[in-house]
Specification:
The strands form two sheets. This protein has a six-stranded parallel β-sheet with strand order 3-2-1-6-7-8, with helices on both faces. The chain has a two-stranded antiparallel ribbon with strand order 4-5. The chain is globular and about 40 Å long. It has one domain: 5'-nuclease (Rossmann fold, 3-Layer(aba) Sandwich). It has seven helices and eight strands; from the N terminus they run βααβαβββαβαβαβα. With about 180 residues, it is of the alpha/beta class. This is NYN domain-containing protein. GO terms for molecular function: RNA nuclease activity.
């Protein structure tokens, strides 16, 4: 990609983390950020994530890797599992940025069918480059596939983006 491109990435942090972990590996976020820049000309990479105070070192690390964090306070379900649903925030940010013409093309990192409306909108505006799915082909929502958007699967880049066993991002294993 040419360095003069001004492309933005919109990343569903929970979808990315759970998807890659479900495939049996850990993502090297630093390499992922560089890869996004080199492969897709991403200047700004928004990472939408639920805010849990005990993971402050992880958030600091992600910012150091070059992500712009957009966090939302989490709530806890009946089983004590945190829920920080950021889908609406991601859609609003991407739509607003598109209307304000802040980027040339967008890259969406998610597998969730809730983003099908956003994908259709960005395709109509000729503002969407690709969807990067953190899940296997059969786990990526049929609603996204039906939009006709180009979809690539992050697992295909595992050899480039996997965190080496000896390296670990702060709190990557869920410990403080």
């Amino acid at each position: 990609m040419k360095s003069k491109e001004n492309n933005f990435a919109y990343i569903d942090g929970a979808n990315l983390h759970k998807g890659v972990m479900g495939l049996g590996w850990n993502l090297d976020y630093k390499r992922f950020r560089v890869w996004l820049s080199e492969k897709y000309g991403i200047r700004t990479a928004y990472l939408f994530i639920g805010l849990i105070p005990k993971y402050k070192e992880l958030y600091k690390y992600l910012q150091e890797c070059g992500f712009t964090l957009v966090s939302k306070e989490v709530i806890y379900d009946g089983d004590g599992k945190p829920k920080g649903n950021c889908d609406a925030d991601l859609v609003l940010q991407a739509t607003s940025d598109a209307y304000e013409n802040k980027f040339d093309k967008a890259v969406l990192v998610a597998s969730d069918g809730d983003y099908a409306g956003l994908v259709k909108f960005l395709l109509e505006k000729q503002k969407l480059s690709i969807v990067l799915s953190p899940h296997f082909k059969d786990k990526c929502s049929i609603l996204l596939k039906r939009t006709g958007v180009k979809i690539a699967y992050i697992d295909d880049q595992r050899s480039h983006l996997e965190l080496a066993q000896k390296e670990k991002a702060p709190n990557a294993d869920g410990t403080a």
